[in-house]
Amino acid sequence: MTTPRSVSRRTFLKGTLLAGAGFAVAPNLLFAQSGKAKPSRRVNLALIGIGNRGLDLAKTFYATGLVNVVALCDTDLGAPHTLEVLNKFPDVPRFQDFRVMFDKVGKTIDAVCIGTPDFSHFPIAMLAMSLGKHVYTEKPMGQSFRQIALMMAAEKKYGVVCQMGNQGHSEANYFQFKAWTDAGIIKNVTKITAFMNNPRRWHGKSFAGLLPEQPLPATLDWDTWTATAPAHPYNAGYTNGEWRSWYDLGNGALGDWGAHIFDTAHEFLQLGLPTEVEPTFVEGHSHWIFPQASTLAFRFPARGSQPPVEMTWYDGQKNLPPLPENLGTPVVDPTIPPPSAGDLQMKKFPPGKVIYGEGLTFKGGSHATTLQILDSTAARDLAGKLPHVPETTSSHFKNFLLACLGEEKTRSPFAVAGPLCQAMALGIIAQRVNTKLIFDPATQRITNHAVANELLAGNPPRKGWEQFYRMA
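The structure assignment produced for this chain is given below.
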């Protein structure tokens, strides 16, 4: 296995100099004033990606009381969005390159939290797992079908604890869906409608190629930020969430929200991988960024006694799905932050799903929201017969930490989250080539489209980043 010891110390020294410059400490009750390790039953956690979503993860993990923060890592160390975490943990070692971090302080780390852009989840997680570190990573797991397969293989090979960050997988939606499926309330599902029609960053935009090069910020290690992704000239239009728009870097509305909307249906209906994915509507097809709107039909085969399922995904602000007349008020989880482009559409038509089973139709939202039976008469008849739904013993974050301590098992390990992410990866390929795909789950190949089949492997890693593909 290639180790990070050959990595240049230039970026490490740059991060050390920034650390020595000092930052003003502002009061914040969400953090203790020091990140020094405290003796108790805790997990020694490294935070990789500490701004934007990484900031939220840092707060949530620290609030559990089960972590010692032992390392901070961000490729844009010292940029405004990283200062809150840096200020709250002034004595914790900090780095710009995760490889250097593992090289220097890896022995102090039990687990990592990966809050970086989608395309860099893979190399960080692979190196961490190869070193025996437990891994929490935001969704989706990886950028390509192949990366996800390698991450599942590494989880098994190294025997580490892993959790993907689809938080609803530890809340009421998870336990209700499992209980209702086990009791036969949800059975013989043949159709699912899933939708995310909120504004996205790329809506209203079009590009004929890569963005023009701009001066590189002094705080940013662009090479490490790019990781295994294809090389791009620096442009602010790729950073701080804008990467979501680009096929090379993000996973669009489907990869961003699918793991929050149909994750429990995928697991408890045992959907696995589809045999067909058909883009039945695409508006604004582009070779560079995700479409302005798309409708994707995922066709899952029969599984044992369960019938085939067609799940249709709708995204785009005007590409609203056909829904039952008796749908009523949409299901909204009040704890979900609004999408990046604002919350007007979120309030009017929030993300959600409709599940069509034998004799019953269910509506649901995203994340932790529970299902409701649409037929009021059927709901009344079943009111006293519904199975008990247990309450969660731990949040998604605490569940991961307790699993690291050997007290629980993660609810969204890579073995569970991986096939879900691979199904979404097939949908993204269908968006990209704008053609129906025929997929053979047994051979893991797309049999009707050579270019699409090549896209299963994703982009070739940049020179110097190949070793992460050999760690499984």
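Interim note for the steering committee: The chain has two domains: 4-168, 170-455. The longest strand covers residues 276-283.
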